Task: inverse folding
């Protein structure tokens, strides 16, 4: 009975599916976006360690600070990093005094103690970097309809994120392919999902920022530095994670080896030649 | 139950005698997984995965309880609270990555466990109830994993919840009402998030309860084994402890090492990048896909593209997807071969590997855009999926000529040892025709 029912059910599903298989397909024009979209270029990052494997490696503190400078002087005109607190910058080498001074440059919402009216106050190290626009509508109104995303998590919210940020920032130079229209107010960028991006080229020329450590601020260098900085904002615990990982894996390998040896020893009387001969 | 030659617990000290006569937990443990539980001596490494699945569940429960201390099930702050765990909670990043990667590892382990059961015929009598309880656990896991994924309240959480609850709207007449009831509204919102959090917390403990039944059902006939031949005497078994405790410990080490490699060096490898974007009901992601462990079923869901017998394609997809799992409950009666292990079933063995490849193909299709050629590939793969269990296996299991079985487990072990130590004698192993 069960097998008969199963046969019926099986024929039902097979026929329903085969009907779909033989159904004529609508001709689908090749998607020009898919055709011209480029995957981000691979770059060797210091935090990925030898071979870009992602096992060892640490952030380059000087690079993080340069990246922060690029963010602050260029990106922050439109993009927030609202998940990062000023105090977090201690991890990339800022002193408490520097952090305090930096935070004081920002205003955050507060309430007037005496009147209870809405007011603002200077940010403290415990505050997060404030939003650039109070809400999405304000952002779109100011940006000609575009919404600059918060960048705190951007390298984890895009495929191959660090490479993506670097490639996107340096990817404006390519001319659009023949037949591809770039609408007014948009820019062609083959690394952007839809190829047409609303963000104007943010890194327009070399030496757009002046690095304090004397590094030559080429566009490529600035793009790399800010990509690394945004990798840190997305994964501030990256170094602790890898350090813990190396220790954990070494511990577990030793534990596993001991486990294997005790397993062999326990089973010796069952698997060993003596045991077999005895049987 | 246990085999007659099982050792029995004998309390030696005054204290253990005292405990044994009042609450005999030591006796229970000794008889269940100590020296008092004889197990077949030929279990291979695939038999480690049941234990590993238990470990994976415990990792999920422990990390999950810590996460729940810091998580806030409210749509306004759920995503932020996850990021708070990643940034500000002590070792929060580790706990959360263990939980997220742990879900993938749990499924990987359970899939190997299920396929091991399929290959060695562990669903066959007298283990049907054991098999069905395992499937109940699998279904509970799927529900739990789905709801857990929604809790992050990223883009994929939101749209995944929209798609999966949308499946119920395919049910005629009452479908839309059921969807609204499940969501607590017309689209996923705070009510949805709250109930999913509550159920995501509850279901692992329900799973734990069913696992107790699963292990209980296992202890009645004892483990199956790679030969599929019943245990016949003491020469076929070894006491669970120390033999399989030692083997499981070694397997655990390998498992945890692999787990640590992914958690610490590639924690986002198995996830979707879109879920690092906060949920936005006004912006649909370009590609809505579930986590990898649902891809084969997602492919089956999407492979029904045309109406059939006046049943709309969408409803067919939903029926097909649920049927693809539920049909496994009938497997013990669909496969009628008296021989359990595929080692001795030449045709079924080929079919098994075709089925493995078929599921992998479905998995690949499930992770892609619903476009050609993936649709037609997933349709053909779905055809085989259903045909395999519902048509081919019932027929093949009847007409197949099986190979001679070893007389006993001990004999098979001996034959294997002889074969390994002296290849020249490979032609004359101790395998004799079954009587």
Result:
């Amino acid at each position: 009975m069960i097998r008969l029912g199963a046969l019926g059910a099986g024929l039902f599903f097979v026929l329903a599916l085969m009907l779909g298989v033989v159904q004529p397909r609508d001709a689908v024009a090749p998607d020009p976006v898919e055709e011209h979209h480029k995957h981000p270029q691979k770059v060797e990052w210091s935090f990925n360690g030898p071979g870009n494997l992602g096992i060892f490696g640490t952030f380059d503190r000087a690079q993080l600070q340069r990246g922060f400078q690029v963010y602050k002087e260029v990106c922050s005109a439109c993009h927030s990093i609202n998940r990062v607190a000023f105090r977090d910058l201690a991890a990339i080498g800022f002193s408490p005094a520097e952090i305090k001074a930096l935070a004081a440059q920002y205003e955050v919402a507060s309430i007037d103690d005496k009147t209870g009216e809405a007011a603002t106050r200077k940010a403290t190290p415990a505050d997060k970097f404030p939003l650039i626009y109070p809400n999405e509508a304000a952002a779109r109104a100011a940006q000609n309809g575009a919404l600059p995303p918060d960048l705190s998590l951007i390298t984890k919210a895009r495929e191959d994120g660090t490479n993506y940020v670097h490639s996107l920032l340096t990817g404006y130079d390519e001319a659009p392919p023949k037949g591809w229209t770039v609408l007014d107010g948009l820019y062609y960028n083959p690394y952007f999902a839809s190829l047409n991006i609303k963000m104007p080229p943010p890194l327009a020329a070399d030496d757009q920022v002046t690095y304090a450590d004397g590094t030559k601020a080429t566009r490529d260098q600035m793009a790399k530095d800010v990509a690394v900085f945004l990798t840190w904002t997305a994964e501030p615990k990256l170094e602790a994670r890898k350090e813990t990982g190396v220790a954990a894996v070494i511990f577990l390998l030793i534990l596993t080896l001991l486990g294997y040896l005790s397993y062999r020893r326990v089973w010796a009387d069952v698997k060993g030649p003596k045991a077999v001969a005895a049987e | 139950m246990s085999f007659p030659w099982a050792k029995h617990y004998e309390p030696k000290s005054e204290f253990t005698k005292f405990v044994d006569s009042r609450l005999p937990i030591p006796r229970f443990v000794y008889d269940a997984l100590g020296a008092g539980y004889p197990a077949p001596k030929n279990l291979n490494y695939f038999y480690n995965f049941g234990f590993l699945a238990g470990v994976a569940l415990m990792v999920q429960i422990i990390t999950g309880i810590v996460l729940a201390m810091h998580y806030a099930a409210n749509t306004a702050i759920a995503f932020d609270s996850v990021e708070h765990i990643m940034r500000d909670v002590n070792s929060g990043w580790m706990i959360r990555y263990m939980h997220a990667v742990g879900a993938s590892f749990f499924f990987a382990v359970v899939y190997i466990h299920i396929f091991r059961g399929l290959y060695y015929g562990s669903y066959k009598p007298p283990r049907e109830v054991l098999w069905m309880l395992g499937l109940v656990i699998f279904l509970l896991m799927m529900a739990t994993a789905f709801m857990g994924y929604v809790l992050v309240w990223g883009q994929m959480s939101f749209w995944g919840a929209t798609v999966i609850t949308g499946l119920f709207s395919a049910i005629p007449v009452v479908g839309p009402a059921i969807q609204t009831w499940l969501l607590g509204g017309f689209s996923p919102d705070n009510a949805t998030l709250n109930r999913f959090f509550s159920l995501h917390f509850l279901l692992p403990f329900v799973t734990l309860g069913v696992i107790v039944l699963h292990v209980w059902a296992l202890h009645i006939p004892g483990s199956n084994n790679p030969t599929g031949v019943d245990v016949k005497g003491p020469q076929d078994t070894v006491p669970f402890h120390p033999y399989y405790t030692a083997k499981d410990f070694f397997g655990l080490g390998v498992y945890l090492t692999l787990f640590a490699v992914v958690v610490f060096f590639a924690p986002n490898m198995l996830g979707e990048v879109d879920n690092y974007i906060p949920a936005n009901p006004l912006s649909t992601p370009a590609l809505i896909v579930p986590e990898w462990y649902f891809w084969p079923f997602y492919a089956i869901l999407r492979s029904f593209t045309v109406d059939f017998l006046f049943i709309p394609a969408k409803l067919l997809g939903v029926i097909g997807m649920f049927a693809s799992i539920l049909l496994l409950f009938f497997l013990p009666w669909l496969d009628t071969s008296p021989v359990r292990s595929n080692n001795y079933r030449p045709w079924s063995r080929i079919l098994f590997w075709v089925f493995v490849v078929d599921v992998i193909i479905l998995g690949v299709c499930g992770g892609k855009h619903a476009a050609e050629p993936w649709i037609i590939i997933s349709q053909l793969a779905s055809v085989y999926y259903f045909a395999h269990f519902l048509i081919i296996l019932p027929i093949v299991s009847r007409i197949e000529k099986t190979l001679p079985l070893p007389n006993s487990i001990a004999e098979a072990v001996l034959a294997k040892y002889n074969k390994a130590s002296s290849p020249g004698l490979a032609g004359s192993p101790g395998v004799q025709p079954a009587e």
